[in-house]
TrEMBL record:
Signal peptide: none annotated. It comes from Flavimaribacter sediminis. It is found in: Membrane. This is APC family permease. The keyword Transmembrane helix applies. The lineage of its organism: Bacteria, Pseudomonadati, Pseudomonadota, Alphaproteobacteria, Hyphomicrobiales. It is a multi-pass membrane protein.
């Protein structure tokens, strides 16, 4: 630790990532194959208009992606929403947003490990879920401690497998529709909108479908490990949001055509039923293998990004010193990676539903405040640009804020209660740290980059 403080070198993350690697981490975090894992529930909720729900969700998320692109250009550092809000709105609010975002970041790896363990145990009954959780946590943590380059290389392989499963599934579903109903049946508006389904139902489905996008923002936590972070990050976040939106719409479209209606034996495992009807046992087994790959790739990306968020907060003095530690040789936040792995062991006793409730609340709070950060920055620097330029900042951010607030309100009472309890705990910690709010939280001492008030480009 002494050498680390003396040189300052080991306190810095190495810049090795470029645009393809950053996009890959974003895709791994979102886990595109997950669109099939939640398809049954979404199809029932939207009453057979899953593609319309994904279309609306994609539009809503793109506005927030634009705001993330704005802010990462101004502050290309590891703190993501936490940093953007502190710089644009204020230290206390920024701390609370970072605190709420931790619900999303810290628990998502646990969910990935838990889901992966459940699927693994289903094909290896002799090994219980709890044992698989330990195995997956150990393997993922070892990869991430090895460094960002090792994690990036592993993600290339895992993402290739995952996308291949999606392509095979979509191709077989398309072939089934073609052979049973003819090529004309491949063109239909019903997966988007139906005359007998009120728009409000499709909109309610969009609120649920938006959960598939959680994680598109997480790549901004890799800013300090990315070459040319300002340009790369703003492009990468839009590419990830657009690509995933298009993929989700396409996959849900062909799935609805291949299995019209919303009747399933079990909505939570509807994709197994669909895969079996579309491609037999081969496709069902392939899908299980794809899900395992999805969870492995997702866990690597999720653990990587939360470790960087905790690093940023530890480096700034908001969290205790060990959180800001970087291993002098590996250049990775080893303490944070081990901590996230330890938290992942809660998967042995916690349900996916409980964890997901926390995750959604924290994510939508962070999305909302990133949009508000753009508005605050635009208003503060309005005199430096023309009225039209200011409007180009304000309008997309205002739409994004309205959309994410709407998503937040639609999470339900249980989510609001759990999220409220976590927020109160954060306020209590902030009050303790600032001696009753009489002094500001620790300053962002580790940030090397300053804002660029005149930066107006999006791409």
């Amino acid at each position: 630790m002494a050498d680390q403080s003396a040189t300052g070198e080991s306190k810095a993350l190495q810049r090795t990532l470029r645009l393809p690697g950053v996009v890959l981490f974003g895709l791994s975090y979102i886990a595109p194959l997950g669109v099939l894992a939640i398809y049954g529930e979404l199809d029932q909720l939207s009453q057979g208009t899953p593609s319309g729900a994904y279309l609306l969700a994609t539009v809503a998320m793109l506005f927030t992606a634009l705001s993330y692109g704005r802010m990462v250009t101004l502050y290309p550092v590891a703190g993501s929403a936490y940093t953007y809000v502190r710089r644009s709105i204020g230290n206390h609010v920024g701390f609370l947003v970072g605190w709420m975002a931790m619900l999303d970041y810290v628990l998502l790896p646990m969910v990935a490990w838990l889901l992966g363990a459940v699927f693994a145990a289903s094909v290896t009954p002799a090994i219980p879920v709890s044992a698989w959780i330990v195995i997956l946590i150990t393997a993922t943590t070892a990869v991430n401690i090895g460094g960002i380059v090792l994690a990036e290389r592993m993600n290339y392989v895992l993402m290739a497998i995952q996308l291949a499963v999606l392509v095979i599934f979509a191709a077989m579903a398309t072939h089934q529709v073609w052979t049973t109903s003819g090529p004309a049946a491949l063109v239909s508006s019903e997966p988007f909108f139906r005359a007998d389904v009120p728009l409000a139902i499709t909109v309610a489905g969009a609120s649920f479908a938006a959960l598939s996008f959680l994680g598109f923002d997480a790549i901004t936590t890799l800013s300090e490990e990315t070459v040319g972070a300002r340009k790369v990050m703003r492009r990468a976040i839009l590419i990830v949001a657009l690509f995933c939106g298009a993929l989700f719409i396409l996959v849900s479209y062909v799935t609805q055509l291949a299995h019209p209606g919303t009747t399933f034996k079990d909505p939570q495992s509807a994709v197994d039923e669909i895969a079996l009807s579309v491609g037999g046992e081969f496709l069902k087994i392939l899908f299980i293998a794809g899900i395992l790959t999805t969870q492995a790739a997702g866990a690597v990306a999720m653990q990587t990004t939360v470790a960087r968020l905790l690093y940023a907060m530890g480096r700034d003095g908001v969290l205790p010193g060990p959180f800001g530690y970087i291993h002098p040789k590996l250049k990775t936040p080893v303490f944070n990676l081990a901590l996230v792995g330890t938290i992942g062991l809660l998967g042995v006793v916690m349900t996916v539903e409980t964890a997901t409730t926390f995750i959604n609340f924290g994510a939508f709070v962070a999305f909302t405040f990133v949009n508000l950060s753009v508005i605050a920055h635009a208003l503060r620097t309005a005199r430096r640009r023309k009225a039209a330029g200011t409007a180009m900042w304000l309008l997309p951010a205002a739409i994004g804020a309205a959309a994410t607030i709407w998503l937040l309100l639609n999470l339900g009472v249980y989510a609001h209660i759990l999220g409220g309890v976590w927020c109160v705990a954060g306020i209590a910690y902030l009050a303790f740290m600032t001696r009753g709010f009489r002094r500001p939280p620790p300053d962002l001492a580790g940030e090397e980059e300053k804002a660029i008030p005149g930066e107006d480009s999006l791409i």
